[in-house]
């Protein structure tokens, strides 16, 4: 549905986007994820036609977009601010874009009602824009975009103004809506959990470049480099030295975990003998009482943070430069482990991800 080929965008000496290439399939929920200033919104605006590439090409549904203005593209955009007209009611806001199509009034009304039903706002067509909650305004913005029946819906951080609970509810609703209407959604977000929970695939971006494109599980469990790993949730990093390597696995020596053999990622790039191992906090498990594991490390709890259903334990392990972060559910009693207590942690070798140092 969307083909982005070697697209760059420069503003004077500053390169906002650097040689980006992507293929986004029809009916896919695709997210552009990265920190502020990484180029994700610039790329979204160029797909929409609000900005022009310095070089490279963008096609939508097989048609090159060069020279085609935003209002002639088979795309529509939902902005972070929603841009709801305060002097118009819900139905008038939704119908705004339809006016240029000069549809019969009955057809216009039918399409507005259909769009409101899609976003669960049926019966609110006469309500004033100023009488809506934040979640309702967001839905009106979605309905106004969907009523135009675009082939691609572009979403520029549309949930960022909502509180945590409503944001989580709208994430579920957005995903349900995308699956119901079946069109391609492209979401820009800096929230890794939002991207992981909603997307079919994710492009992680830094400094105007695309670092990795993959399904959420692949990006989270097998990040292509330390930068991606660190951005997507917590990650413990352990320095290592390569002692053996083949096409499928890599064996390293560490001062904390000892000698470890783990799978070799496809994207692994060797840089001498130095390497880095990464392991997620939830992949480290507390060993209680006399339980043992063929793969374990010992240390001391130096801090802990209680988060309701889980506790983050900060564990100092001899030989490691930095303490390990461990996430443990509280139904096992992790919230009762005192600071200063000795602790043993189990891990699976396949949870250790090898990355170039």
UniProtKB/TrEMBL annotation:
Residues 2-232 form the ABC transporter domain. This is Spermidine/putrescine transport system ATP-binding protein. PANTHER family: SPERMIDINE/PUTRESCINE IMPORT ATP-BINDING PROTEIN POTA (PTHR42781), SPERMIDINE_PUTRESCINE IMPORT ATP-BINDING PROTEIN POTA (PTHR42781:SF4). InterPro entries: AAA+_ATPase, ABC_SmlMolc_Importer, ABC_transporter-like_ATP-bd, ABC_transporter-like_CS, Mo/tungstate-bd_C_term_dom, P-loop_NTPase, Transp-assoc_OB_typ2. It comes from the Bacteria. Keywords: ATP-binding, Nucleotide-binding, Transport. Belongs to the ABC transporter superfamily. One of its GO terms (molecular function) is ATP binding. One of its GO terms (cellular component) is ATP-binding cassette (ABC) transporter complex. PROSITE patterns: ABC_TRANSPORTER_1 (PS00211), ABC_TRANSPORTER_2 (PS50893). One of its GO terms (biological process) is putrescine transport. SUPFAM superfamilies: MOP-like, P-loop containing nucleoside triphosphate hydrolases.
């Amino acid at each position: 549905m969307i083909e982005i080929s070697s697209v760059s965008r420069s503003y004077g000496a500053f390169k906002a986007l650097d040689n980006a290439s992507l293929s986004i399939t029809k009916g896919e929920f695709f997210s552009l994820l990265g920190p502020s200033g990484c180029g994700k919104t610039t790329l979204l605006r160029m797909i929409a036609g609000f900005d022009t590439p310095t070089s490279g090409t963008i096609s939508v549904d097989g048609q090159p977009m060069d020279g085609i203005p935003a209002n002639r593209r088979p795309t529509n955009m939902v902005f972070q601010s929603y841009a709801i007209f305060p002097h118009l009611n819900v139905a008038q806001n939704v119908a705004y874009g339809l006016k240029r199509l000069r549809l019969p009034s009955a057809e216009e009304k039918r399409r507005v009602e259909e769009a409101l039903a899609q976003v669960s706002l049926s019966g609110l067509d006469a309500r004033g824009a100023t009488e809506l909650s934040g979640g309702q305004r967001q839905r009106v913005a979605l309905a106004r975009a969907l009523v135009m029946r675009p082939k691609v819906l572009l979403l520029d951080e549309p949930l960022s103004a909502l509180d945590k609970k409503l944001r989580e509810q709208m994430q579920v609703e957005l995903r349900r809506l995308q699956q119901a209407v079946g069109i391609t959604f492209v979401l820009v977000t800096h929230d890794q959990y939002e991207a992981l929970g909603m997307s079919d695939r994710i492009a992680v971006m830094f400094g105007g470049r695309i670092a990795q494109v993959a399904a959420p599980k692949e990006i989270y469990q097998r990040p292509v480099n330390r930068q991606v790993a660190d951005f997507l949730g917590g990650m413990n990093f352990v320095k290592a030295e390569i002692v053996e390597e083949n096409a499928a696995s890599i064996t390293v020596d560490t001062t904390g975990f000892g000698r470890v053999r783990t799978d070799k990622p496809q994207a692994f790039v060797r840089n001498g003998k130095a390497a880095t191992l990464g392991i997620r906090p939830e992949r480290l498990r507390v060993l209680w009482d006399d339980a043992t594991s063929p793969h374990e490390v010992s240390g001391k709890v130096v801090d802990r943070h209680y988060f309701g259903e889980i506790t983050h334990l900060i564990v100092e392990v001899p030989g490691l430069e930095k303490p390990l972060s461990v996430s443990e559910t509280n139904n096992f009693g992790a919230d009762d482990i005192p600071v200063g207590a000795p602790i043993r942690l189990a891990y699976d070798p396949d949870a250790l991800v090898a990355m170039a140092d």
